[in-house]
Amino acid sequence: MNITVFSAYPFERPYLVAAAQQHYTLQFAHEALNLATAEQAAGSVAVAIFVNDDASAPVLERLWALGVRYLLVRSAGHDNVDLPAAHRLGLRVATVPHYSPFAIAEHALALMLALNRHLRQADAQVRRADFRLDNLVGFDLHGKTVGIIGCGTIGGTLARLLHGFGCRLLGYDVQPDAELTRRYDLEYVPLDTLCELSDVVSLHAPLTPATRHLLDARQLARLKPGAMLINTGRGALLDTAAALAALDSGQLGYLGLDVYEFEKGLFFNDHSQQPLQDELLRQLLARPNVLVTGHQGFLTRDALTNIAATSLETLGCWLAGQPAPNELLPAPVEAAQLAAC
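RE: above sequence
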């Protein structure tokens, strides 16, 4: 049984090979999936894709014509997949929704602490024997108000971590979870209120048409002057140009990004031998109060093990005629009709 793995990076290949356990033949394609590279899936019944692969309708139609019947998304988010097109074709799709919420939540917390305590600047200074502390003053995270936008598995895990730091927690989500309020005193508030009251805001919502640029110039203007913003969700949740303007004005005091609005074709690859072509990112990287990592929040041994195992276990369920709990099923007709109203 052949599986073509697109965007197959060296860091994850050993985990996928171990999960396959000689039950599947893995064909690794370093290139991202798109209409031009889809031909590499010829002879495979399944393809495994990553966050920046193109699973739009034309690509899915080509995969179907090549004989692909299963699409394994090696992430929790699936905004790059045209689900209606997949379901229309009969292509079965699954994600890995719970591979390791701790990996992402801990990375968000690491960005908060690194920005707050100026660790990038401190490391650079010490390496040149400059031990002054004048420009490294931070703040106690304890007692601060942190707003979590998107309180699902990852956002809820971050709430758990921040509760241990003694933070006041605010949450914004279309489906409030009363358990987070009971266990961690998280208070659900409207988005405007969360922005106005939070010292730190952390983004963990899925990317949908409704959440694109959820934090735009209007919402950024509501932040406390000098507030910190962290995004480990999806790049386009944040209007990056508006964030740069807010940094320039001082409205935004710190910005930590593990995802970037225009990361497709840039992140996960080595571009060090040529000048950075993305002017917006170049300007962000030039600021000492900005910390950018290249979409590595998921990158732990635990998460990579779970992603590989869950993806191939899902395929095994389908091939055995069994349901997979992480399959993305078509919306019921009634719900789809209501959503269209």
